Structure formats: structure tokens, C-alpha cells
Amino acid sequence: METVLEIAPGVSLWRERLDRAAQRALLGEVLAQAAFYKPVMPGSGKPFSVEEFNFGPLGWYSDKSGYRYTSTDPRTAEAWPPIPPALIDLWKATTNHPAPPECCLVNLYRAGARMGLHQDRDEQAIDAPVLSVSLGDEALFRIGGTTRKGPTRSVKLGSGDVLTFGGPARLAFHGIDRVLSGTSTLVPGGGRINLTLRRVTA
User: For the chain, which end, N or C, has fewer CB atoms within 10 Å of the first or last residue's CB respectively?
Assistant: First the structure.
């Protein structure tokens, strides 16, 4: 029987929800289609430390003009690839949300990459939780409340771990403090891949 850890109200963690074979299969599907790029910050154009790609009807994109969801890859004008079926099944099994996810944002963390505290607030469907899948190196995930200066807690996420946050935690500030390089050999060249599934439209 699966053990679900309640990290905080609205935040649930399944340790090694994906076994090694499932991790390899999912990673292979992702790497076969993902053309990673480095997004830049709105206004300043400063590049992120992570590389990104999207699957699904909508993709999250950031450039000098702002944050937004797009139905096509702005670099190629082509539709983003469909979300891998294994992730759709995982969404159904863990979120209990009646509507399917519309975006799977893929973040690739190489050595030194991190993600500062932020809210996922570009979506209309804040009634739907966010689902996160970790592959590769361990990472220190930080999550707090709905104000930037509120208390936070840190949780180590390993390869195959699945985390959801919704309800009172849907707009919680969260981020990746650092990736623990060399803790996994799953990702070619090292690093961590995080897959974040979201429902965008109401």
C-alpha cells in the first residue's frame, strides 16, 4: 500500500511513486521529444539557470515580453508534443481532479541551477492542484505560504518522487534551493528533470 506523506495542509508527497523502470521509460519519452531552451526574465532578459520545454495543449513560456501560456512553441510555431500517457494516468491517480492537465512544464536542472521562491499563478484553474514528478538528482524543495515572507519548510525530493500541492497550498510560494549533484545516474550528463503538470483554463 502506498504511503502518502502530508507535508503541509494541501501538500502531499509519494516517495518513489515511480519505480526505476517507470523512471527510465518516462525519461526516455521526454528526452526523445524535448528540445530544451533557456527562458529569460521579462523586461531584463536575464536567462534562467534552468532549461525548459513543454508538453500538452498549452505550454508555459517566458521571454522579455512576459510570462504566458501558448498553444505553440514560440521558437518554431509548432504545437507542443502531447503529454506522455503515463503522466496523465498519474494525474488521475493522485489529484482526484475531474479535468485533465493542459500543461506539462519540464525543467532541466544542471549543476548550479536553482529556482527561486515563486507562485504558480498564471492559471485560471486554481481549483486544480499542481503535480510535480522528480527524475534524476535529489533536490531541496522549499515551500511556504501564500506570502513571500511567510515561514517555509524544506523537503528533499528524490528520483521517482511525486508531489502535489493544491487547496490551501495552491498559491504557496515554492522553489528549488539546490540540486545535489551526483546523487543519481538516471539523467544523461547528470542533473535533475522536474515535470510539473497543471490545469490552466477554468
Answer: N
